[in-house]
Design goal:
The chain is α/β, with parallel strands linked by helices and about 400 residues long. The protein is built from 15 helices and 13 strands. Helix 5 crosses helix 10, helix 6 crosses helix 7 and helix 12 runs antiparallel to helix 13.
């Protein structure tokens, strides 16, 4: 038996007026998802436990079968693991976004215009992070460049009770009430303010503005946490597996759980990602003897944050057309297989950030087709089945049973 999870990050939504009161899942042309839902098990699953933030970190831990209430230690340590950063037990890792702030004179009065600086390229962001490293790297603070706008800072002997805010939660809002507060955060705030002076007139940003792109004019620190300790996926579930993602966070969860992390050329985490390459890489892993593959696709989430309605619909269609269709054809050679399709959390276009509502899932097994009453895969039809899994981390054992 082979097992494949297709995780469409942020794919779930609420009714969108511009889509005649329907969700992107309801509007998207997705014949493969709809077919699997008609012939499989469909329901809702609560991936975000009460009291925890509705982040992709918590949600993907849950979907991978690990109770976030027991294993969640923060987002950034998971990303650090994927980036090859060696964390000591005393280290605190923080996500370091390169963001676009408005040009108000006082830093405290600036507005969060763009959490990703127009999806800045990795080459450009690397130059900017080099300037940050030259200014701030010391025995206490170390900055590590990552992909696009996503970078990491490690604070030696730091505090993990910082109360920092994800930048995608405060788009188009003044940052005044969301800046690091208190004595413990004093140096973090000073670095963020100082970074604006370093970056605002950097040649990379001057070039970007000349091309009509948002400048990456400040760092933004958030997502603090300590080194995670996850049990082995194989020991927990008896399956050898791989994870395929363009996002350090999801790679990090997989690596911490002993899954093999596969890099796919052209995988970007956006709608221009190599959808087909991810599906082909998953089939190759199964052919090499892996029992389980977790395919994470970030594009719907990024479109939700940016309120790109047509692109969110299109990203779902591309998952269906290039990922699921390719997988179904490639899996036909196996005697039996199971596929699970779901988001990790909703990213409603109306809110441009994550929420914690239950998400729709579908499980299909080649040798055990059913014929339910639903006609397709979306939030409403999943709710109408009456199937509900209260604790998201239990879904994986149900899938692999």
């Amino acid at each position: 038996m082979k097992y494949v999870v297709i995780l469409g990050d942020g794919m779930a939504d609420t009714p969108v007026p511009e889509l005649d009161g329907k969700t992107p899942l309801q509007v998207a042309r997705k014949p493969n998802m709809d077919l699997l839902a008609r012939k499989g098990e469909t329901g809702l699953v609560k991936t975000i436990p009460d009291g925890l933030p509705p982040g992709s970190d918590v949600a993907n831990l849950s979907v991978m079968g690990f109770d976030p209430r027991q294993y969640y230690t923060g987002r950034s340590p998971l990303e650090a693991v994927s980036m090859g950063i060696s964390l000591k037990d005393t280290d605190i890792a923080l996500r370091c976004n390169l963001v676009t702030l408005s040009d108000n004179e006082e830093y405290e009065n600036k507005v969060m215009l763009d959490y990703s600086s127009d999806e800045i390229t990795t080459g450009e962001s690397g130059e900017l992070m080099e300037s940050i490293q030259q200014r701030y790297n010391n025995s206490d603070y170390s900055f590590y460049p990552g992909i696009s706008y996503r970078h990491c800072m490690v604070w030696n002997r730091g505090s993990e009770s910082l109360g920092l805010t994800p930048p995608h939660d405060i788009l188009e809002k003044p940052i005044t009430n969301y800046l690091p507060k208190g004595e413990v955060n004093k140096q973090l705030l000073a670095m963020m303010k100082g970074s604006y002076e370093i970056l605002k007139n950097h040649p990379v940003n001057i070039s970007r503005m000349e091309r009509g792109l948002n400048p990456a004019n400040s760092i933004w620190l958030w997502g603090e946490g300590r080194k995670p300790l996850l049990p082995s996926f194989k020991e927990s579930y008896g399956k050898k597996g791989s994870v395929i993602s363009a996002v350090d966070l999801v790679k990090g969860i997989g690596i911490c759980a002993g899954l093999r992390s596969i890099d796919v050329p052209g995988a970007t985490g956006n709608i221009d990602t190599n959808f087909l390459g991810k599906a082909e890489a998953a089939l190759a892993e199964l052919d090499l003897g892996q029992d389980f593959v977790y395919i994470h696709i970030e594009a719907p989430d990024e479109c939700g944050h940016r309120k790109e309605i047509e692109n969110k619909v299109r990203s779902i269609e591309l998952i269906d057309e290039l990922v699921i269709d390719t997988l179904l054809k490639g899996l036909e050679g196996y005697t039996d297989y199971r596929i699970m399709i779901l988001p990790d959390h909703p990213t409603p276009l109306a809110l441009r950030t994550h929420t914690s509502e239950p998400v729709p899932y579908t499980i299909y097994q080649k040798s055990n087709e059913s014929h339910g009453a639903i006609t397709g895969y979306d939030e409403l039809q999943a709710a109408e089945t009456g199937v509900f899994i209260q604790e998201g981390h239990r879904l994986m054992r149900h899938f692999l049973a």
